[in-house]
Amino acid sequence: MERRAYLRTSVYLASVWLILLIFGVNAFGQGNLKLGRLSMTPALKYELRYDDNVFIESTNEQDDTIHIITPSILFGYTGATPGNYFQAGYTGDFALYTDLTDNNWQRHSPFASFGYESPKGFYVQLSDNFSWSKDPFGSFTDFDQSNRFGLGTNTERYDNTGKVLGGYHFSDRWFVETYYQNFLIRYDLDKDAWQDRIDNGFSGALFYRFTPKTSVFVEYRGTKAEYDEQNDGIFDVGRDTFWSSDTSQDYWLHDALVGVRFEPGGKISGEAKVGYGKKDFDNSVDVLGNEYKDAGDFIFNSFLTYTPTQRTTVSLNAQRSPLGSPDADAPSFVNTLVQLSLTQGFAYGLSGHLLGGWNYDDYQDENPGVPNKYFNRYTVRIGLDWAIKSWIKVGVGYEYEDQQASDEAAFGTSEYSVNRAKFIIAGTW
Length: 429
Prior knowledge:
With 429 residues, the protein is mainly beta.
């Protein structure tokens, strides 16, 4: 039966790529689906992945070969100036396991964004990103960079991030920006719903431009996080008790930062900022009667890209922030992430990719009797892509991830190592 299912999967994938190739030839390459300033960009990617630890376990690892099909489409409108645009699109991921078919997963991600820039110095940007998923990779989102809740099991959930940003240029050198951002996440199963959360964030920043492409700034950010299911009295299966509005993990984040922004067009682009962040809990004790403790910490948030030559790009992604804990052992943790990546182009359409990363999850104010808890996670990725034509490319890659705990006796079941190898073929029109 499994062999028959695998044969059907292989025939299906071959048919998909036959249609893709025919469509690609008829489209005569990438970027031809345009009508004036309107454009449509469909794409299709197939990934063949080998994973030696499918359930991300510390022992008794199981391996499998996985077929991942990713269709996507992007609609765009570009105005007469770069700040005037509209984009909307969709990306889907469909994963089919060869043996462990009960672990098949999928993800659906529609999005939209809009920008307007006035000749008088005012500009506004709106965006919304939605994702529904049932996958085993934890509740990782752009808003919550290290949420490991549900890691290793197919966890059904959806999240949405909406943002409105506005700015005004007082002069060639001085300008201000402010934004409002709403984030929510919802879990399907009752046992997971104690992690349902709504975040309302806002920011104000003052910039001084001292070169045409470089500005310095000061910024204040505030975020109000509410665990609405906890406030409504949901039953916590792991703790065998009920939450309430007097014990929920609701909190405020107050951040003060200074930074520098590099506009696109130069060798360096992106933003880097550092500062101090304070986390204040709304309640004094948690659902088990343990005390919540407000705390402040050093924080940073940076993504910089350096392009010394046309073929070479070096990127730095560095984040440090306090987050709500998806764990019964502590009410919060501080996540530190540092990633350095290199992309190098070669002749004949070849390009190489290398990434090294370190992630440190330091849990704060562990409950009585719980040892000091933290995890170090190391990631290495390497890959090679070949652009056969302007509209199609193939690639191979390898990824290694290893997580180590502070106390193996207490948290050893959360330690793991994963090796993944992949082959990818992708078309864009």
